[in-house]
Amino acid sequence: MFSTVQKMILFIFFLQFSATQLFAQDELKLSEAFLKSVQEKNFALMKPWLGQNVNAMKEKWQQVVNNAHRGGFDIKLVKIKNIVPGRQIPNLPMKSIIAVYEYDGKDWDDLLLMITMDKKIKLVEIPLSSYMFALNEGRRGKNIKDAENN
Among 5, 27, 68, 109, which is least packed by CB within 10 angstroms? Predict the structure, then answer.
């Protein structure tokens, strides 16, 4: 039915596909943990996902919490719909991920995180923290377009 070479190719393809799916699941888990930590104002929920730059992450995380808990915005209504993976940063073992969420009937792409590309992913940067959950209509869709163009 299949030759040995064909079986090997199928096996390698299966392994690569499985690894990609597992990595994508971890990206979603990290994003959901980040969202939950912001919703509950509990930075400790991020502990399994943090590297050595905890203090820098906590300051940026607090800015996100402040954005998310402002008047007129209900962070409890935010649900992550999907993850858009970015490309690897040149010469660095990290990449961006965009957690697309729905709020008030619209998709928003301002939840951008930088993660390691190791076997166990870690959060290494919270870029553009002042834009997260700001519902800036002029920026809506920009992060996804930038990820597609890079």
Answer: 5
